[in-house]
Amino acid sequence: MRFLNDKPTHDLTYNDVFMVPSLSTVGSRLDVDLTTPDELGTSIPIVVSNMTAVAGRRMSETVARRGGVAVLPQDIPVDIVEIVIDYVKSRHPVFETPITLLETDTVGEAMSLIHKRAHGAVVVVDPDNRPLGIFTEHDAQGFDRFSQLRNVMNREIFSLPHKLSAEQMHDKLVEERLSFAPVVDNDGALVGCITRKGAVRSTIYRPAVDANGHLLTSVAVGINGDPATRAKALLNMGADVLVIDTAHGHQGRTIRAIEEVRAVAPNAKIVAGNVVTVQGTRDLINAGADIIKVGVGPGAMCTTRMMTGVGRPQFSAVLECAAEAESQGKHVWADGGVRYPRDVALALAAGASNVMFGSWLAGTYESAADTLRDTEGRLYKESFGMASNRAVKNRTRSESALERAKKELFEEGISTSRMYLDPIRPSVEDIIDQIVAGLRSSCTYAGAATVREFQERAVVGLQSAAGYDEGRPQGTSW
Fold first, then answer.
1. pLDDT band at 375, cuts 50/70/90?
2. Can you state the percent helix, strand and coil of the chain, rounding each to 5?
3. Main-chain dihedrals φ then ψ at residue 234, nearest 5 degrees
């Protein structure tokens, strides 16, 4: 990346900068390869932040199927993490996981599950896992919540054989004028489900998988306690990427944690942070980290900068830390501060190999929080920052009452925020589509066919607040 004019003497946020187009020979957005330079196996530069209300098994599975990776939070007990990793590794790289119930289950049970998946359907199965019917929210009209599904479900089932390609499945759904279908094996047992849009996505995205072809997983490790023991256990469970995570990454305990984890896991991919300086980046790399998380205070749920005055504008932080990491053959992730696809493109232009998202994905079907309705019937989920009082309570539940009470006095995050599901883009996959579309276009404007080329060719200029506002679309009439 280079600046259009002189390099500025002050630090910059994503809003402070813009990118200018360059001569391009890239013929189509679909010709752009977004495989990340950090060689993790991600085919799009999207990492879901290790937020308790966001990153769970549904998020991990769905994002990995489209080429990214989700980081499971550090406050999840190890035995639960093992269950989640086993679950994600067992998911199909193309077929979505169906919601299944028996015909003796009730409408109430179905309605409590139906908003946990974007496809909006429950497959009613027999004890041998063969589809008997389909239930959707529309089918519940006129029935009370105690009605059994056998009396409510649609028994006209159109199933797809699992050996068909994604293209063939899409065409079959179009022929039948259907948007959803169960996928069955040769014996008629349910192995997954697919939607029209999911079939199209499977022809565009490449799943993020490990050496065995299983979906990629990542787990956070704290710096307190015994990080080496937890890290070793996580690797034995099949975790692909370890993220040594704390709000203030440039401290002695973080460095010791990296060294301890590296000692027991010499070949593991280790991400560590968070930092915002060249020296912080250098010290964590010297301790053994492969990738550095960059960002202090830019997150939507974070109050660190307002509480402490500590932090740094994210674009400049990523730019300088990425240059230091590059000089040592390492990489950085840009963590936080993105509000639009443009910000993701600018983070990559500054040198990030992946970009982390948290709150942007909180209001989706796949986030870990429960789906709720407000008094007007709108769906929402509750989100909270990982340094908030609520998160501290979760993280310190095994400590004494006094120790917990002392730690709860110090919070730097929002404990409760309603994240409404966008009726137009209610799924994390919808948001991924939006981000990837923007990124591919950004690459074509820069004349780049890969992320590496984009980072080399991007030309960035400075703008005023008025310049930023000029680029915002007009949502209402003149």
1. confident
2. 35, 20, 45
3. -65, -40
pLDDT in tens, 260-278: 999 999 999 999 989 999 9
What's the CA gap between 134 and 402, in Å, rounded? 52
> Rounded CA gap, 257 and 240, in Å?
18
For the entire predicted model, the pTM comes to: 0.90
- Of the candidates 464, 204, 440, the residue with the CA atom closest to the CA atom of residue 342: 440
Q: How far apart are CA 175 and CA 390, in angstroms?
A: 50
Active site residue 193: no
Question: What is the per-residue DSSP string for 313-374?
Answer: -HHHHHHHHHHHHHHTT-EEEEES---SHHHHHHHHHTT-SEEEESGGGTTSTTSSSPPEE-
Neighbours of 370 (CB within 10 A): 11
- CATH 3.20.20.70 boundaries in the chain: 2-92+208-366+424-470
CATH assignment of 2-92+208-366+424-470? 3.20.20.70
Report the C-alpha gap between 235 and 241 in whole angstroms: 8
Query: 99-204 sits in which CATH class?
Result: alpha beta
Catalytic hit among 193, 302, 321, 443: 302
- Residues 299-340: pLDDT tens digits? 777 778 888 889 999 999 999 999 999 999 999 999 999 999
